[in-house]
Amino acid sequence: MGITERKEKQKADLKQQILDASIRLFSEQGYENVSIRKIADIIQYSPTTVYLYFKDKNEILFKLHEIGFQKMGEYNRELFDIKNPLIRLHKLGENYIRFGLENPEYYDLMFILPAPMDKLREDPSCNWECGDTALNGLKAVLSECIEKKLIPPGDVNTLAMAVWGMVHGLVSLANRRRFEKLVPDPEIIPSMNKALNWLINTMDQSSN
Amino acid sequence: MGITERKEKQKADLKQQILDASIRLFSEQGYENVSIRKIADIIQYSPTTVYLYFKDKNEILFKLHEIGFQKMGEYNRELFDIKNPLIRLHKLGENYIRFGLENPEYYDLMFILPAPMDKLREDPSCNWECGDTALNGLKAVLSECIEKKLIPPGDVNTLAMAVWGMVHGLVSLANRRRFEKLVPDPEIIPSMNKALNWLINTMDQSSN
DNA sequence: TTGCAAACTTAACACTGTTAAGTATATTTG
DNA sequence: CAAATATACTTAACAGTGTTAAGTTTGCAA
User: Which residue intervals of chain B bear CATH 1.10.10.60?
Assistant: First the structure.
């Protein structure tokens, strides 16, 4: 069955071409410039062809949002070397903020825009793997902090929501320009890191 | 000049009618259903007439976002009676979360969507009064907490960003369904309030 | 009555996601 | 080998979006 095999490869190829075009549009021109027609232009097919490979635009955006999680993962590569989990938690927060500010488009897709979650809600059986992995990583670090008595004991889920909530709040308010008229421009990023420092210090058992 | 006066009243009237129609569409059908053509349908004028009263759609959305801040203000009416500033801070956070969950559309406009800030950026001289007032309220409560030694001393701006960051993070992650696949549905709101409780308790000087 | 200005509309541009229906090509079946 | 079918793709259209240039109607002043 060499023929059908080659055909399937070609089909997969075109699917990948569509994704590549989407990523290119997305990275170069931002979220609102990813349109089916522009993708079609790049791959040199008619717009409707895209629908033979992806159910709708949300499905494409979902794939892009997964790529975003991969990209974020790369920010935390060197983190496993750090022994002290509280310092690891701090670095994790710093990296989250840095990733969010450096990749606002991917950040939007991952944590702000409804599109990828809409796709996920279409079949309720499947869960949000990327998000689950990321949150579990955070929970693991927090558990280790509690275990080693670096922070006061408490419900890990609550702690995780609090920490994630704060860094996400900072990044999304910054990216959506809600600090711009309140905090002088060059102070926004340092202020965000100060807020994170404050959180870590406040949790730090040894500082009491 | 009774005639020109009446005319100006009529003009102001139509401007208000446009806003009323926008609020209605916005409240009843959500953000993405506020379109110039639908507004025109309601006020029974052609779509282009809207442009004689508002420069563009952003200008309308900016007005709506201000109404949102008014609505949020109403949530905090009874707050001034509370003497203990730390309890007031806690209630402020609870109200913020409640407002955000109960009015997701207004919340979007106020803190998530770029549109109102784009409008603001058009003339850089004017500042974000609504946001400024709200943030100053938070800072005042925090200052009072420090003054009365209810929380450890620290930079008020940093504290304000941290607190606002966390509650905004929680609300926006919840509204954009980022908790849905990670936290069982009926536990989302309690978990958010637990996270807020944790923050307040961690700050609370007396609990150490 | 003419002239002008204000208020409003028509028609269009350039887009968007999406779908029904049609076509051409290649493969399978009788 | 010819006819039927399945695959891959396209055309044309629907229903909508924000926005603008140009044209029309209305009412008031000179």
Answer: 1-54
What is the full DSSP assignment across A40-73?
Answer: HHHHTS-HHHHTTTSSSHHHHHHHHHHHHHHHHH
What is the CB neighbour count within 10 angstroms for residue A193?
16
A206 touching B (Cβ < 8 Å): no
| CATH number, domain A58-207 | 1.10.357.10
pLDDT in tens, B10-48: 667 899 999 999 999 999 998 899 999 999 999 999 999
A121 touches B at CB < 8 Å: yes
Q: Report pLDDT digits (tens) over A38-67.
A: 999 999 999 999 999 999 999 999 999 999
Q: Within 13 A of B147's CA, how many CA atoms are on the CB side?
A: 8
Contact A176 B131 (CB under 8 A): no
CA B11 / C1′ C3 distance in Å = 25
Write down the architecture of domain B1-54 according to CATH: Orthogonal Bundle (1.10)
Residues of chain A with CATH 1.10.357.10: 58-207
3-state DSSP call for residue A139? Answer: helix
Reported pTM:
0.94
- Those of residues 81-110 in B touching chain A at CB distance below 8 A are none
Integer Cα distance of B70 and A14 in angstroms: 51
Q: Where in chain B is the domain with CATH 1.10.357.10?
A: 61-207
* Residue among B128, B152, B195 minimizing CB distance to A158: B195
Query: Which of the nucleotides lies closest to B36 (Cα–C1')?
Result: D18
Question: Nucleotides of chain D within 7 Å of a protein C-beta?
Answer: 7-12, 16-22, 28-29
B116 token code pair:
């109102």
What is the CATH architecture assignment of B61-207? Orthogonal Bundle (1.10)
Using the C1' atom of nucleotide D21, identify the protein residue whose alpha carbon is closest. Answer: B48
Give the nucleotide with minimal C1' distance to the Cα of A57: C17
